[in-house]
Structures are given as C-alpha cells and as structure tokens.
Amino acid sequence: MATSRSVARLVAYRRSPFMPIGSTANFSSSVSRAATPAGPPQPGFRLPPPTRWDQGSESSLDKASKYFLMAEIFRGMYVVLEQFFRPPYTIFYPFEKGPISPVSAAITIEAEEREDGSRRTTRYDIDMTKCIYCGYCQESCPVDAIVETSNAEYATETREELLYNKEKLLANGDRWEPEIAAAARADAPYR
C-alpha cells in the first residue's frame, strides 16, 4: 500500500500548474514541430551537417591562391602603395596656408569717365556665391558706401537671386538701415 501512495503522489506532483500538460503542449507556439508555416517537418527530417573549413566548394587552386598567394593582402598593399606616392592632401595649417580664391572674382565694377575727368560707376555687381566675406571691398571704398552687416542668411531658391546689382544693393541697404547705422556707431571709435 505504501507503494501505491507514492505513485499517486508522483502523478499529482507532475500535474502542478508549472508543468505543461501533454494535451496543451501541442498548441504551444514554442514547440519546434509547428515552427514552420507548412507545419511540422516530415518524420526523419534532418538538416545537412555544416560544412567544415576543409570541405568547401572551392577548388584546390582557389584555396592555394587564397592561403598561400594571399591575393587580398596584395590587393590591399597595392592600394596603400598607390596612395603612398601621391602628394598628401593635408597641409600643416599654421605654417602652410591653402590657396585663397581671388577676391576680385566676386565683384564686377564698370566705370566711365565724366566730362570733368572724374570717373562714374555704371555697373556694380556682386556675386554672393563667390564672396568670402573678407571685408576688403568695405575697407577700400572711399566714401563708405559698402558696408558689411551681420546678416548671414542667404538662403534662396535660385542662384540668380544671389547676384546683386546696384538697385538690389540699394534696396537691401534701405531695409537694413537701422542695423547698419547702429553697427557704424559702435565701430566708429575703432576707425
């Protein structure tokens, strides 16, 4: 009688809520038999064994060229040697200076002579795509007609909008007049 009680206890222990019941295990998504959309695999199905490093589909000549001739290493060394004999792209900035684009390329000035012998400006165009904001034009203007402002927003839809002629420059100056005057007053003690 003692043996029948121990068997009953063992069966009751197996039916605890933490152990899956055999009938509910078939509906679980974690069962490996129902992992594919086509259903469980056929009985006796096995995956092919993984190929070992010495059983690849390459020929012996390909393996020899890969391991003994080291084609990839020589290809990399060729790239390194090709770059080695080219001039360097970098400069040592404080000691070497890069080329500066010509400042005169941004401004086009045409002038004609007046009857009294003085010159008069007929065309004054600034291409803001070529301007490097060096301030040379402002310093060289004898009558302070050229003024740089703090406006650095030149986002336009077309490139032609960044080409300023005399009329656009005068309209731009009228729009920024209060800020230009304030900047001139602040800069006056230093001139």
From TrEMBL:
Organism name: Penicillium cataractarum
Record GO biological process: mitochondrial electron transport, NADH to ubiquinone; mitochondrial respiratory chain complex I assembly
InterPro entries (UniProt xref): 4Fe4S_Fe-S-bd, 4Fe4S_Fe_S_CS, NADH_quinone_OxRdtase_chainI
Pfam families xref list: Fer4
Residue span of region Disordered: 31-58
Full protein name: NADH-ubiquinone oxidoreductase 23 kDa subunit
GO CC list: membrane; mitochondrion
Lineage: Eukaryota, Fungi, Dikarya, Ascomycota, Pezizomycotina
Domain 4Fe-4S ferredoxin-type residue range list: 122-151
Organism domain of life: Eukaryota
